[in-house]
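Hey, I was hoping to borrow your eyes for a little while. No rush at all, and the record is pasted right below.
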Amino acid sequence: MGQALKTPVQNESLVLSYMDRAGKIAIDQVAGSFGMSKSQLAETTGLARETLYRLERSRTAKTQGRLREMLEIISRVADWAGGKEQAMAWYRAQPLPAFGGRTAEALVKEGKAAAVRDYLDHMALGGFA
């Protein structure tokens, strides 16, 4: 990894860039930004498809938390991946040796986003996979 991963404070900027005036992550904006439908975004985050189509469900703590986790991880790798689109591709497809070859996407779906963040922090400090 040639470039350092972003610090937690820098990670907030990507998350904040998708916030609406109510302080919620704007799902249409996230999906559009990554060239996805709401259904594809739901699949990527491990949420039921209808969750992102129903306003009341899209604004729950669980839904917002899962979206935040995904965006935080993408933000951490965006610089060295070559941008947020490439970071999304990494998130969805790159097997992580430290996790038995599972992807960041699979781990977030399992509720293990903190483990991915810890792993990325470890790598940023020069650790090995």
